[in-house]
Amino acid sequence: MAALVRSSFLVNAVYAESGREYGLTPQQGQLLCVLMSRSYGMGELGAMLRLAKSSLTGLVDRTERNGLVRREADPRDTRAVRVALTERGAELAEEFYTETCRRIDGLAAGLGPQDREMLARLLGRVVLDNEAPLVFKEPDVEAVDGLS
Fold first, then answer.
1. Which of 11, 20, 72, 89 has a C-alpha 20 to 30 A away from that of 96?
2. Distance (Å, rounded) from C-alpha 11 to C-alpha 17?
3. CA distance 111 to 41
4. Exposure string over 123-145, b if 16+ CB within 10 A, otherwise e
5. CB–CB of 53/42 below 8 Å?
6. How far apart are the first and last CA of the chain?
7. CA–CA distance, 32 with 92 (Å, rounded to integer)
8. How far is CA 121 from CA 10, 22, 26, 46, 139, in A?
9. For the residues 133-148, what does the mean pLDDT come to?
10. Confidence of residue 127 (pLDDT cuts 50, 70, 90)
11. Residues sharing a CB contact under 8 Å with residue 25, sequence separation 6 or more, in sequence order
12. pLDDT tens across 78-89, in order?
């Protein structure tokens, strides 16, 4: 278990390092990565990012002021708001995502292909067993293979 905890520190450090390069906090980086696939309602985002309503509102406010996200009316519920990437936010999200994937891939650089596959399978089971939300899209296999 200690190795799993320590590995989470490594991944968090990668998020922080990538974020600094792109002028983002780790939380803003996560928000942008979540929004890469589609817009989300505030309630959905709060659950995915495991943030209280006030913390999420502050995060979205700061990211909106930076021109990276926008609030939109929810077509299914006029009282609700959805959060989406702006064009600038989508470009930055893609750059941040690609760089963060490259760095996370580098954490396992000392492992051979079979060990990397086993690690991915085992961590995948932990994620599924604990119903972890999808806050970072699955990487394009060809793109990751090109990084190895």
1. 72
2. 10
3. 39
4. eeeeeeeeeeeeebeebeeeeee
5. yes
6. 27
7. 8
8. 19, 31, 26, 28, 15
9. 54
10. confident
11. 19
12. 888 999 999 999
Amino acid at 88: R
Number of residues written out for the chain: 148
Single pTM value for the model: 0.82
Element holding 63 (H helix, E strand): helix 53-65
The per-residue b/e assignment along 75-99, b for 16 or more CB within 10 angstroms, e otherwise, is: eeeeeeebbebbeebbebbeebbeb
Mean pLDDT of all residues in 25-50: 93
Count of Cβ atoms closer than 10 Å to residue 44 Cβ: 15
Please enumerate in sequence order all residues whose Cβ is within 8 A of that of 13, keeping only pairs 6 or more positions apart, or say none. none
Q: Are 21 and 100 in contact (CB under 8 A)?
A: no
Average pLDDT for the chain: 89
In this structure, what token pair is assigned to residue 57?
């509102």
pLDDT at position 132: 78
